[in-house]
Amino acid sequence: MTVYREVSELPRCGSCGKLLTVGGIEQERLGHVIWFCSDQCIRVFDSYKVPKYGADAIWPESLKR
Ligand SMILES: [Zn+2]
Fold first, then answer.
1. How far is CA 31 from CA 5, 28, 47, 58, in A?
2. Which of 3, 50, 51, 60 ranks highest by number of CB atoms within 10 Å?
3. pLDDT, position 9
4. How far is 62 from 15, CA to CA, in rounded Å?
5. Residue 65 burial (CB < 10 Å; 0-12/13-18/19+)?
6. pTM for the whole structure
7. How far does the centroid of ligand 1 lie from the alpha carbon of residue 53, in Å?
8. What angle (nearest 5°) sits at the alpha carbon of residue 47, between those of residues 43 and 50?
9. Residue 56's pLDDT band (boundaries 50, 70, 90)?
10. Distance from the CA of 52 to the center of ligand 1, in angstroms?
11. Residue 1 CA to ligand 1 centre (angstroms)
12. Who contacts 13 (Cβ-Cβ below 8 Å, separation ≥6)?
């Protein structure tokens, strides 16, 4: 069965919010598996978002489902 995913079901990068239509990098952070679009975004997440926002840095749209 071929599954076409709706745009609303696609994950967004946990750092910049870009829609991940292809690829994406999974990283485990704060007990969740989060999608990122690039190594650069992972660095921004770790060095800026998490220290500033803690668990609130994680967007629900970026969690692996
Ligand atoms: Zn990104």
1. 26, 6, 17, 11
2. 50
3. 79
4. 9
5. exposed
6. 0.84
7. 17
8. 110
9. very high
10. 17
11. 31
12. 20, 24, 35, 36, 37, 38, 41, 62
